[in-house]
Amino acid sequence: MTYDENRFFFIMLGFGLFMGLVTLIYVIKQAFGRTGGEVGGWEIRGAPARIFAIARTTLAEGMRAKVGAGFVGIILVAIPIFYFTAEGDGTIKGRVQMFLSYSMGFASFVIGVLTVLFSCRSLSVEIASKQIFGIASKPVPRWQIVAGKWMGVMSLNVALLTIATVAAYAGTQGIIRQFKSNLAHELETYGGLTPEQSAKTVAALEDVRGIGRQGIQSPVIDAFAKALGRTEEQVTELLLRLPEGTRMNLRRFDELRRHVIACRAAVKAEIPDLTQEVRAQYEKLRQSGDIPEGWTESKLLQNLRAAALGRFCTIPPGPQNARQWTFKGPKPIKGKDVIMSIRFKLDAPGYVPPQEVRGEQLPENTLLCFWGFGDPTKPNYAETAEPYPINQFFELEMPSECVGDDGSILISFANADPRRQSVSMDLANKGLEVLYHTGSFEEGVLQTAISTLIPVACLASFGVCASTFLTFPVGTLVVMTLFIISSSMGFVADALAATKEYAGANMTLEWELRKMTVDTIGWALAIGDLDPVSQLIEGRAVGWAAIMTNTLIFVLLKGAVVFGLAVLIIRRREMAAVIV
Predict the structure, then answer these.
(1) Where are the domains of the chain?
(2) Share of the chain above pLDDT 90, in %
(3) DSSP codes, 2-34
(4) Which of 31, 182, 193, 359 is the most exposed place for a label (fewest CB within 10 A)?
């Protein structure tokens, strides 16, 4: 960055720190500048009944104010619209993915907005209208009032999210039923099957098992052949009479079964410890006096490690440069249908032209790669060599027989492209993963719904806390601003040039200070670090361990701190003291 840009950044940073300090002083003054008039103290006896009563009253007030009813109406209108308008890429898989993304993503956004509005009015409106006197003058501790308000907000959120989740799941099943109905109709119209045969063939889709294969080896053809009592060749001829769009949809439905209507976990490739190699390079540069001027030891070690990691992730062409990785997954369950796949992204710079090899045309922007699954010395070893697209993610399924009894998976890779193009995989950022099924689609939907509640619960704590000392409009503005900033920290980091792309080769002090500032703001405002909707449409499990970790950090720790601040503030406010 130029001198003027750096000076502007520091001026804005200083102004922001000054405004933050002024705001903090104002909040402290408003929160602790009054004497308390609380009745009940920290009494715990009878707390559940009082908290439940306040939560029930808060929920009823929200419904009477038509806040909750209005947002329920928005959800119930929006999801059917998504059902009829979501098309994706025009196939059954694309339509389901787009519908799930729109319905659950929109529901998450709407519930977030509802949480801000409902929580910020939970106490501020009652304090402004003096309705709080009816509670504060009774022997009800203030912490129970705050807890009851928070529970009332979350009760409405849970109810609304339950409606949205059930509607999204029902819509997904409706899209699948519509596809099956159209398939049955076309099997009768173009395939010449009777209604009974058509129904039996469509019902066989529930019995499809195993990994996806091309042509006559597809498990869909095998299931249809068993249902109709015909050979696989006869079923293939039958399907060829169907329209091209229907055949494409049938292939995409098999992908939907394996990659979306599933609950899959991922294991990333292990990165070796590069400490000794990096330290040796550093000592060599230090002894030779080649350390760049102004570079600190930590900065140089960081750059050397990034270079070493780049070399490890780069695979030059030729079998002598083949790589092997060992993944540790769950132990295979004998007799259970297990689908495992490799998800990878081949990064290659520039344009890769097409080339003819042994009479076959290698398409443009693809690389001929070799993959091996399992121990080459054992009979369950499998391998494949195909051209794969570059600069985009691709899933390659592998036989579950290649998995060891302890769950270990040995995977080999070689860059066999004749165009002598080096390829790299970003192993540190999901550039190579092994995916395996861990549960049903219903479990994945449930995990998505629970994960959606985590940031909402943290946000509700912020809203209730703001309602203890701010008016409804001001509290809503403050918390909504925090919500927007926390949801767009990636854009903020990019706008402030605080990402690695702007670091350059030297990583100046200005960049490090800017990045530290953005990271600090992001940590302070963060309300969750899961992305459940993206996980859902890729058939990935959020994971119960990740859910528990996020609940601990953002609900039980950060939410508890904000809750404690809210209790401290409202205990210092003299709203309705009992005078004898």
Answers:
(1) 34-172+442-571, 177-262, 275-439
(2) 27
(3) -HHHHHHHHHHHHHHHHHHHHHHHHHHHHHHSS
(4) 359
